[in-house]
Design a protein that fits this description.
It comes from Fistulifera solaris. By secondary structure, this protein is an all-alpha fold. It has 3 helices and no strands. Helix 2 packs antiparallel against helix 3 (about 60-80).
Length: about 80
């Protein structure tokens, strides 16, 4: 199927996609941080008050690992086009 220049122009003008990347990325990051706060609370700590060191409990290491994975997956939400 060969498209004429008029058809291509009409297709380009009528087809659009919006990218809500920053909004989606921000919402995803907020969700990840909410999960981290809940994880820290369930371990008996306050999010942001634990400093890195040799005495970090395993639960906090798990919370931080989950937070890192969650935030890394937010990149997909940031670059995905939203119609």
């Amino acid at each position: 199927m060969k498209l004429s220049p008029k058809s291509l122009l009409l297709l380009a003008v009528t087809t659009s996609s919006a990218s809500a990347g920053l909004l989606s990325y921000g919402i995803c990051q907020s969700g990840c941080n909410g999960m981290a706060v809940a994880c820290y609370s369930s371990a008996g700590f306050v999010f942001g008050a634990v400093t890195a060191g040799a005495g970090i409990p395993a639960a906090i290491v798990g919370c931080n690992t989950a937070l890192g994975c969650c935030m890394a997956s937010c990149v997909v939400a940031g670059i995905s086009p939203v119609p």
